[in-house]
């Protein structure tokens, strides 16, 4: 009986509260049954919660129309393996650097910004698309605005191309297609584009609304056109954000860098991030110490749509995909973190508790089925009882049980725990020698008219613990002469049973 070893603390409390039985008694009773009692940890929610909802920092409501300003689109690149995603990212990165002054020393920080000739910017995520993207969506953070689907002109749509299309659809993010490797002699861009039709992606050149740009990532051909296409798509989507209010951002990468410590790459979603800002993300916080771009260059500020690497995290790092929110003060940040840690623990405790309850439920079902079967066979658990019954049966086979006074009860309790406790105590009685005592039926919940019938048929009394019989049941019981006894204290119920039994025992000579 595994479940007995995990005593329900709620039950323990409720019994203890009655002041009739102390916890020790119950533990002893269980121990007497041959089990090692162990009281399971109760979930935090049952105790006074340490987490105060007001302490958390939540995302701000959407900005008003007047506050919104255009921001760079955030783009992620997807497609089948070897179709040229990495090469395209490198080419895009370089397209920026040749124009810039940083000598091509780029760091891989998970995101980078590309400035076009007219000064407009595009932010590219260079983390492998799916995972980071999915994490963001599930954590309420902002992911990419659009996807560049890379399709090799010499290969067409392949398995991962299909997956990427599926993924973008689910995330409700539009596609711009880059038909890549158009420099190859065996390239057939038209065939590659046609292979997209079966997925309802209709290129503009075929009368549809999906921009397909023929490029060579390796040779850098037509990359300008691809960037233009991205900005056109961004314009159609009217991608905007407010630079006002507290900063919100998404974590793209979180890692520890030698010499700098814990760093994260963020893409700002709203507000303007500056050094010294206090940020909360996941269950940790940060006072921004350094702010750099993908070239390691210090940044003074980062507005919406801008990728930035920051340091200054206390304790832990947040996870990629976490939503970062600025706090008004370090005090508010630490409170929010404490709140989140408490919530996390609570969730975990609830989950653990759920598992314990489920185990207990299964064990209990088996146990009840077992017991009911044993009861129906008239077999008792107590070893002394079993021996006596056995001997009696042999000696007085013909006489049956008629020589003994009978007592039958039907037991109904409020919860399984009390049922268990009462049954355990009942089983420890060894009066079967002189008295034929049987629990005809036991269960959790109030008695029904059927129970009254059963009690009548078997000559049983109904014992209720911590529950009431409704009027119909009471009337029926009265009419059929079935006694209903009601108790709220286990030991009183047990005493009453003892008294009843004693009254029925023949006087000893
Ligand atoms: P990924 O797996 O999608 O990231 O693909 P890669 O960028 O690693 O490219 C796979 C191979 O295709 C590499 O050998 C690239 O050099 C090559 N490749 C990528 N783009 C082009 C292109 O535009 N033209 C040609 N000829 N080869 C390319």
Automatic annotation (TrEMBL):
Transmembrane segments: none annotated. The keyword Transferase does not apply. It is found in: Mitochondrion. It comes from the Eukaryota. The chain holds residues 87 to 595 of 706 of the full protein. It comes from Diploscapter pachys. One of the essential components for the initiation of protein synthesis. Protects formylmethionyl-tRNA from spontaneous hydrolysis and promotes its binding to the 30S ribosomal subunits. Also involved in the hydrolysis of GTP during the formation of the 70S ribosomal complex. One of its GO terms (cellular component) is mitochondrion. Belongs to the TRAFAC class translation factor GTPase superfamily. Classic translation factor GTPase family. IF-2 subfamily. Residues 70-244 form the Tr-type G domain. Residues 41-70 are annotated as: Disordered. This is Translation initiation factor IF-2, mitochondrial. Keywords: GTP-binding, Initiation factor, Mitochondrion, Nucleotide-binding, Protein biosynthesis, Transit peptide. GO terms for molecular function: GTP binding; GTPase activity; translation initiation factor activity.
């Amino acid at each position: 009986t595994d479940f007995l070893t995990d005593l329900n603390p709620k039950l323990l409390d409720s019994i203890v509260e009655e002041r009739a039985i102390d916890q020790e008694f119950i533990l002893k009773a269980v121990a007497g049954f041959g089990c090692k009692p162990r009281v399971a940890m109760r979930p935090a929610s049952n105790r006074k919660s340490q987490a105060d909802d007001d302490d958390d920092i939540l995302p701000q409501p959407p900005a008003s129309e007047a506050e919104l300003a255009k921001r760079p689109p955030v783009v992620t690149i997807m497609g089948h393996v070897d179709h040229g995603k990495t090469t395209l990212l490198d080419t895009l990165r370089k397209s920026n650097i040749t124009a810039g002054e940083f000598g091509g020393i780029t760091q891989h920080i998970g995101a980078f910004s590309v400035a076009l000739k007219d000064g407009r910017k595009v932010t590219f995520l260079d983390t492998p698309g799916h995972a980071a993207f999915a994490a963001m969506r599930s954590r309420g953070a902002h992911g990419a605005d659009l996807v560049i689907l890379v399709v090799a002109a010499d290969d067409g749509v392949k398995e991962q191309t299909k997956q990427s299309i599926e993924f973008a659809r689910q995330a409700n993010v539009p596609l711009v297609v880059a038909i890549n490797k158009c420099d190859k002699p065996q390239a057939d861009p038209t065939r590659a584009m046609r292979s997209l039709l079966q997925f309802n992606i209709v290129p503009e050149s075929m009368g549809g609304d999906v921009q397909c740009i023929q490029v060579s990532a390796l040779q850098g051909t037509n990359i300008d056109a691809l960037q233009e296409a991205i900005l056109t798509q961004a314009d159609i989507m009217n991608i905007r954000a407010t630079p006002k209010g507290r900063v919100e951002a998404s974590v793209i990468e979180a890692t520890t860098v030698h010499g700098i410590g814990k760093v994260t790459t963020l893409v700002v979603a709203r507000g303007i991030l500056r050094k010294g800002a206090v940020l909360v993300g996941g269950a940790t916080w940060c006072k921004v110490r350094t702010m750099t771009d993908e070239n390691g260059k210090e940044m003074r500020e980062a507005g919406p749509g801008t990728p930035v690497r920051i340091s200054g995290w206390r304790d832990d790092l947040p996870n990629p995909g976490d939503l970062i929110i600025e706090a008004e003060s370090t005090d508010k940040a630490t409170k929010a973190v404490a709140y989140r840690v408490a919530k996390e623990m609570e969730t975990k405790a609830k989950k653990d508790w759920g598992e314990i309850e489920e185990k207990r439920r299964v064990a209990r079902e088996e146990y009840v089925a077992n017991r009911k079967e044993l009861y129906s066979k008239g077999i008792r658990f107590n070893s002394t009882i079993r021996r006596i019954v056995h001997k009696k049966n042999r000696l007085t086979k013909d006489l049956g049980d008629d020589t003994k006074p009978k007592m039958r009860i039907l037991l109904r309790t409020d919860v399984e725990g009390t049922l268990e406790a009462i049954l355990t105590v009942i089983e420890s009685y060894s009066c079967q020698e002189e008295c034929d005592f049987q629990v005809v039926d036991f269960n959790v919940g109030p008695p029904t008219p059927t129970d009254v019938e059963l009690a009548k048929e078997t000559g049983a009394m109904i014992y209720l613990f911590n529950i009431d019989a409704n009027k119909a049941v009471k009337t029926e019981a009265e009419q059929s002469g079935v006694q209903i006894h009601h108790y709220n204290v286990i030991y009183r119920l047990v005493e009453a049973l003892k008294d009843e039994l004693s009254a029925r025992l023949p006087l000893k000579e």
